Amino acid sequence: MTAQLLLGAEAVGQGAMDAGISGAYAYPGTPATEITEFIQNSKQAQMMGIRAAWSTNEKTAYEAALGMSFAGKRSIVSMKHVGLNVAADAFINSAITGVRGGLVITVADDPSMHSSQNEQDSRAYAKFAMVPALEPANQQELYDAMFHAFELSENLRLPVMVRITTRLSHSRSGVVRRAPVSQNPLNPETDPNRFVLVPMNARVQYASLLEKQPSLVALSTVSPMNALSYATDNRSLGIIACGIGYNYVMETLQSQSLNISVCKVGQYPLSMSVVDPFIAQHDSILVVEEGYPIYEELLGGLQNTGKIRGRLTGTLPRMGELNPNTVKQAICGVTESKSPIEDPPMTALMPVPTRPPQLCTGCSHIDLFNALNAVLCNVEERHVFSDIGCYALGALPPFNSLQTCVDMGASVTMAKGAADAGLRPAVCVIGDSTFTHSGMTGLLDAVNDQTSMTVIISDNFTIAMTGGQPSAATNRLRDICLGLGVSSEHLRIIVPLARNHDENVAVLKEEFAYEGVSVIIAQRECIQAAKRNKKLLQKK
Amino acid sequence: MKRKKTDILLAGVGGQGIISIAAVIAYAALKKGLHIKQSEVHGMSQRGGAVQSHLRISDDIIYSDLLSEGNTDLLLSVEPLEAVRYLPYLSSTGRIVTAVNPFVNIDDYPPMEIIEQQLAMRGRCVFVDAAALAKQAGNPKTTNMVMLGAASFFTGIEAELFKDAIHEIFAERGQQTIDMNINAFQLGNEFAAASGRL
Fold this sequence. Notes:
The complex is a heterodimer of chains A (about 550) and B (about 200).
Chain A lengths: L3 E4 H11 L2 E6 L6 H8 L2 H6 L9 H13 L3 E7 L2 H15 L5 E7 L12 H8 L3 E2 L4 H18 L3 E6 H4 L1 E5 L23 H23 L5 E3 L7 E6 L2 H12 L4 E5 L1 E2 L3 H9 L3 E5 L5 H7 L7 E2 L14 H11 L29 H13 L7 E2 L24 H11 L6 E5 H18 L3 E7 L2 E2 L5 E2 L6 H8 L6 E4 L6 H13 L3 E7 L3 H13 L1
Parallel strand pairs in A: 2-3, 3-4, 4-6, 5-6, 9-10, 9-12, 12-13, 14-15, 15-16, 16-20, 19-20
Antiparallel strand pairs in A: 1-7, 5-11, 8-10, 17-18
Chain B lengths: L4 E9 L4 H14 L3 E6 L9 E9 L13 E6 L2 H6 L4 E10 L12 H11 L1 E5 L1 H8 L5 H9 L7 H11 L5 H20 L4
Parallel strand pairs in B: 1-4, 4-5, 5-6
Antiparallel strand pairs in B: 1-3, 2-3
Helix pairs in contact in B: 1-6, 4-5, 4-7, 5-7, 6-7
């Protein structure tokens, strides 16, 4: 077969379909969104009856994938790194239950925080859950890794993580496909105890997970994801390279014609039989891993004698993603070769002004922030709690309307806690999809406690920031709030438009003054989604 | 045999069609049987912010998805200030092809003379009034294909292959869109050829 150009994320989607999944589960999040979008848009998925609609959050996605596995079929669940925090309860415990049909979780980490609030390393989660993790270095490996991951998962009866990062997910390269594997038949779990994690069963299951650990290491030893190349006559430096870090190492060796041994690690738990002999044969070792210095720390130990170098020793930067330049500098630094950069980087003489992301012209959030600022301009201590979405840009000039943005749903619950502490008015702004993801339960807390606070749901009928996926409860937010116990007198709907400014300001003022829970739904379609929908209509 | 490689940095502002330029070049390179890696940033950084894509073409295996500073052969920018932003990536023999039409959405946007001066100091430049040529092609949105046409001389890929790629990439949007984009590519291509800056 000829190669086709695929983003890393698309290679995951294609690989999972070809490896015989029956379902793909996910909540959108950069840089993982395109995995599921690729499956949703694929004719193959439609023909094969692969279900791939969005879930309400990462936890519901993970649990549904586990359910499909329980029924004997293969499923993939995908998320961004911080999404795994939401799904962590299900993930960790699915290692205890084990799986039936293959279950692969693909997590896309975002070092350098291009679109995220931290750069946590999901390999730490795999280690924590004691399940295998694969870390491919390129798009072809990523595609092939899906087959390997599903086989591992079914052989070990454990979920398997495939860890990618932004640069792999959002980079295209040629991928050659394999013959597709057919889907598993329906074949539900027959063991009456395995999935019932009451303590007496859980202890048995946990013991079984511990028993599997040596075989996990043995499988890492012979993993097709590893590669070992010994340099002739050079034992001064050896490089242990993980995942995409391998690419930057090889780029340096290729462009600088360096002769250095490289041990590529692509499967965890780390096998000491792979790295021990390699370390023993070299005077010094550079560990190049994207993300946290997890394996550098493990190999160097707490009393690192200086043989193991990497992010912890300052040879590579401690934070941020790796790139060809940082890796080249590190290798040249360790080998004490004069940095053989042919073309020294040229810096512009002029400082270039930054161009930060902005809300689109005509965005509904803008009119909401204008109304919010008009109401709060005379309040000395302004605290508006907010959340994850395009509207977080309201924290920046020219609006400066928001004072928090922590995690999905935190706006509602942080406003509640602040209201409990006596803050007035306690106001939060949350998007429609973030509200259904993790805001609803917080609102229930506030209703039960009769907290004096106002929840503003900025409802643009879509998951805008990740490219306009359908929001879970479009046109049902009012009913949800009523169902949670918000009184209908204090459940207001406004349309954020400049011409409604005075009217909207009045509504905000009234509800901010109310001693109790109020909800204002600010409803207007995302301007980008409106454009796309108009085009679609014209096509029809 | 020394390997042949072309490292291209595509720059612009979110919404200017950088990703489409990348898709067309990548498609054409694949047709030519070359190795390709093309990386881009999605997500929050798209919205009116600086956007870049790294494109690497070679007849040999390509390892890094990202470009190295000081090694880029072609800086292709749809917006002049964005060209200045990525000058550190350009190699000493690298070429600059940029639109002269500023996208002003920040208060401290520098004067155009300074921008042109900065660019000219760093490499041989082709300055293109892409907005005017795109209008001539029939749609201001074809600015990106005007710029690809102008820069195509520095990619090592033939114009005909790019035109095939445009047909393929824009196939779903109908014949009129394809024609306008081909037209835009051609206008950019002719402008650069006549500029005396190749």
